[in-house]
UniProtKB/TrEMBL annotation:
Region called Disordered, residue ranges: 94-124
Superkingdom to which the source organism belongs: Bacteria
Membrane-crossing residue ranges in chain numbering: none
UniProt protein name: Isochorismatase hydrolase
Organism: Cupriavidus metallidurans (strain ATCC 43123 / DSM 2839 / NBRC 102507 / CH34)
Claim: Hydrolase is one of the keywords in the record: yes
Basic and acidic residues: bias regions: 94-103
GO MF annotation, one: hydrolase activity
Keywords linked to the UniProt accession: Hydrolase, Plasmid
Entries under PANTHER family matching the protein: HOMOLOG OF SLSA IN STM, HYDROLASE YCAC-RELATED
Biased composition (Basic residues): 104-124
């Protein structure tokens, strides 16, 4: 990993070091695993890009949440649901809407029968 020597050196000089492991590479999976084990031995914290972004973001309850959602779609292009979740969380907060977990859900008996017939193993 190209971050190994700088990370080990920075840690030896008293810095708290985080290595973004998916932003660096090596010639084999074995070398990657061995290098990660080595940097962890000297207190380097391995993280991926999404974890770094999450730590910087901290919460969806912020004015720039939309921009953070756009960053996440670049990290995970197949995750458009993340944007939808963010937007829903903002609308719930803004409109004072009750959370799904706080709503009183009543499922009609016909709906329950249909669900049980489709997925019998889930209802046993």
């Amino acid at each position: 990993m190209c971050t190994a020597f700088p990370s080990i050196n920075a840690g030896a000089n008293g810095y708290k070091v985080v290595a973004v492991v998916d932003a660096s590479g090596t010639y084999s999976k074995m070398a990657h695993k061995i290098t990660l084990a080595r940097v962890v031995q000297v207190s380097v914290v391995p993280m991926d890009t999404a974890a770094i972004a999450s730590e910087r973001q901290r919460t969806w309850h912020r004015d720039d949440a939309q921009q953070w959602a756009e960053i996440y779609t670049r990290i995970f292009p197949a995750k458009p649901l993340l944007i939808e979740t963010c937007m829903k969380a903002q609308s719930v907060q803004k409109d004072g809407e009750a959370l799904d977990s706080a709503r009183n859900h009543h499922t009609r008996p016909s709906t329950l029968r249909r669900l049980r017939s489709r997925w019998p193993s889930r209802w046993s």
